[in-house]
Amino acid sequence: MFQRILIANRGEIALRIIRACRELGIESVAVFSEADRGAHYLELADEAWCIGPAQATDSYLLIKNLISVAEIGNVQAVHPGYGFLAENAHFAQVCRECNIEFIGPPHQAMSQLGDKVSAREIAMKAKVPCVPGSDGLIEDADEAVRIANEIGYPVLIKATAGGGGKGMRVADDETSLRAGLQSAAAEAEKAFSNAGVYLEKYIGRPRHVEVQIIADTHGNVVHLWERDCSMQRKHQKLIEESPAPNLPQNVREDICNSAVRLVKEAGYYNAGTVEFIVDSDFNFYFIEVNARIQVEHPVTELVTGIDLIKQQILVAAGEELPFRQEDIPCNGSAIELRVNAEDPENDFRGSPGTISKLRLPGGLGVRFDSHVHEGYTISPYYDSMIGKLIVHRPTREESIACMKRCLREFTVEGIKTTLPLAEKMFEDDAFVAGSVDTTYVERTY
Ligand code: MV4
Which fold has domain 207-444? Predict the structure, then answer.
């Protein structure tokens, strides 16, 4: 087992990993940029090292500084959290070459699944339903037009090195397809240094259902049920929940078992999420794999009772999973609300600043994962999420009632937050009915 772990991240996920280490009796080495100096969560780590200025490319993304801390901090493993270097296969490789265990998937599987076209090929081999589309990258526009005529418009042009919606274009006819191919390839080249694009039939108004997976290095792979993340705006999730509302049990099991088959086929291990879209007839289609722990992992921890960060560390240390698929329940209903320092009245513009007053909700089934405190200054250098409010109750109705009670108790002053929008969302009839799709928030709010 590891004696010391470097946490190559910041904020609420760094605190989350510090807590898991503490409970496992593992020392934690935290890092901070000048913008995060003095944040209270750093005091909970055994050590905290400054790795550079606020700019992420000179601190949290700077591999050589992170590896330097790993060396002088004498750690045996590094946990990347999410964002920053969590899905950077080069970082995973550098860690392993420096004899530091990377708490995450093997870099080969990370690269293979990070490439959307090769992920589709693996999915098809594993008999996981994929959206009808091109068989690999699009080599020329005429080929694209032929494929689009076969699968029918509208079609979606996607960047193979993209993800999370970046570099996607919808085309309704041949003209917009030819134009879309040019602009998507140019954007992909600029954003990912990889202009490769592929085609998929556009599934209108899909739900976003993702499956939590964890696999060890002994061939054991289990799913930890699904999360519905359809309440999102411009690919930024606002609310996530488990189980997915109004999804028939047989569909749930098919989606979750498909995710297990895909991960097995890819030779993947550690935690990961297999993302699907689901149409109004409950047909589900594989979209992409997120080869990291995700922001919304607490939703799954609450319905399964499994500490995912601890399991990641144990798997990275070579332990076998301590549970089998039949041991994993999905108890009750968990709903997570992301709380962002953004102004919903101003197109969700970031609202950095100092929190002058903070009153947190509590009570049975209430969890608030956050690094902030009264007097904390939200930096403009990093993402705007200040915390996640997660509630877990026996039924979805009770969870919604509990969330609404928490929102009445929750007070944040000194910055604008998305809390006023949250109150409206939890009152929203379509949301309460569990019938929203991924376009709902943008169409309604
Ligand atoms: C799609 C789709 C419709 N049809 N693929 C968005 C980014 C990545 N998660 C995949 N995404 C989508 N792929 C086909 N063939 C609709 C989306 C999509 C979406 C998917 C999941 C969650 C939120 C979304 C928001 C807009 C579009």
Answer: D-amino Acid Aminotransferase; Chain A, domain 1 (3.30.470)
